[in-house]
Design goal:
- It is a single chain.
- The chain is α+β, with helices and mostly antiparallel strands.
- It has one domain (2-254): Deoxyribonuclease I, Chain A (4-Layer Sandwich).
- The protein contains seven helices and twelve strands.
- It has helices at 15-25, 44-48, 115-135, 159-162, 170-181, 187-191, 223-226; strands spanning 2-7, 29-33, 53-57, 65-69, 73-78, 91-96, 99-105, 141-146, 185-186, 217-221, 229-234, 250-254.
- The strands form two sheets. The chain has a six-stranded mixed β-sheet. A six-stranded mixed β-sheet has the order 5-6-7-8-10-9.
- The protein binds one DNA strand through residues 9-10, 12-13, 34, 36-37, 60-63, 108, 110, 116, 148, 202-207, 246.
Length: 255
DNA sequence: ATGGTAGACGATCTA
C-alpha cells in the first residue's frame, strides 16, 4: 500500500501534472495540501477519473487539504479536533483500507516572532494534543503533510543561510520533536540518513537548479504503521516539469 | 537588490 503526501500549490493550476503523476505511479492514497479552492471548485471528476475517491476540506484562495484514495474513505474529520471550526482549512483525517490517514498543512509562520509565527506554534500544540489522543487507538496511523519545518540541519542544503530562520528555528523544531517524542516516526529517516532528500525548493533565486532545498514535507507514522513500513522516498521528477509545484511528492509503502 | 517567483484574484496577500 503506497501512501503519498504532496503540497500541490493549487489543485486547479496543477491538475494536468497531478493527473499524469497519478496515472503513472497509481499510489493507493494521496494526502494533498494547498489545494487553494473551495470544495465546489475542486476538480472532483478529473480526480475520480484517475481512479480515486476524494475527501476535501477547502477554503477560498488559501490552504485547503484533501485525501485521495483508491479505497472507501470513512470517518472523515474536517479540521483539527477539537478546533474543527477554525476558518483555516489545514487538516483532514479519515480511515481508508484499514489505515487511519491525515493530511496536514502546518502554517508557514512568515518570520520568527511574527503574529503568524505564534499562530504556527499554537497550531503545532493543538496537533500535538490531537496526535497524543489518537495514539491511544493503537492503529496504523499516518499523518502526511507540509509541516513547514526542517527537522534538523541535515534536512537543509544551506543550514548557515537558514540559521534560526522560519522553517528552521529552534522553537519550531522543538514543537515537531515533541510530536515525534509521543511515539511517531519520520518515515524518510528510517530509510535515508545524512543530507537530504529535500522536498521543497523555492520558486525564487533558482533554488531548484542549485538543489538549494529543504525537507519540510513529512510522513509521521504511529508504531503500528512502522511495523508495516516497507520503504519510503521522494520523487523529485515532478519538481523539474513545466508548471511544477514547488514541493515534490513524498511517499512510503506499507506491507 | 528587505531582492527573487508563483497562485488566487482582481488590490494585495500568502508562501
Amino acid at each position: 500500500m503506497k501512501i503519498v503526501t504532496w503540497n500541490v500549490n493549487s489543485i486547479r493550476a496543477r491538475l494536468e501534472n497531478i493527473a499524469d503523476w497519478l496515472r503513472t505511479h497509481h499510489p493507493d492514497v494521496v494526502l494533498l495540501q494547498e489545494t487553494k479552492c473551495q470544495n465546489h471548485d475542486f476538480p472532483l471528476e478529473a480526480i475520480e477519473d484517475c481512479g480515486y475517491n476524494v475527501a476535501v476540506h477547502g477554503q477560498k484562495s488559501y490552504n485547503g487539504v484533501a485525501i485521495l484514495s483508491k479505497y472507501r474513505i470513512e470517518d472523515v474529520i474536517n479540521g483539527l479536533p477539537p478546533f474543527t471550526d477554525d476558518d483555516q482549512a489545514r487538516y483532514i483525517e479519515g480511515v481508508t483500507n484499514g489505515v487511519r490517514v491525515a493530511s496536514v498543512y502546518v502554517p508557514n509562520g512568515n518570520t520568527v516572532g511574527s503574529e503568524k509565527y505564534h499562530y504556527k506554534l499554537k497550531f503545532l500544540d493543538h496537533l500535538h494534543d490531537h496526535l497524543k489522543a489518537t495514539l491511544l487507538y493503537e492503529e496504523a496511523f499516518i499523518i502526511g503533510g507540509d509541516y513547514n519545518i526542517a527537522p534538523t540541519d541535515d534536512d537543509v542544503n544551506d543550514p548557515a543561510g537558514w540559521h534560526e530562520k522560519i522553517l528552521c528555528s529552534t522553537p519550531e523544531r522543538k514543537s515537531l520533536r515533541a510530536i515525534l517524542n509521543l511515539g511517531y516516526s519520520d518515515a524518510i529517516r528510517i530509510h535515508h540518513q545524512g543530507k537530504g532528500p529535500y522536498t521543497w525548493w523555492d520558486y525564487r533565486s533558482g533554488s531548484w537548479q542549485k538543489d538549494d532545498g529543504l525537507r519540510i514535507d513529512l510522513l509521521l507514522l504511529s508504531p503500528q504503521a512502522v511495523d508495516r513500513l516497507a520503504g519510503s522516498g521522494v520523487d523529485r521528477d515532478p519538481r523539474g516539469l513545466e508548471k511544477a509545484s514547488d514541493h515534490a511528492p513524498t511517499w512510503c509503502t506499507l506491507l
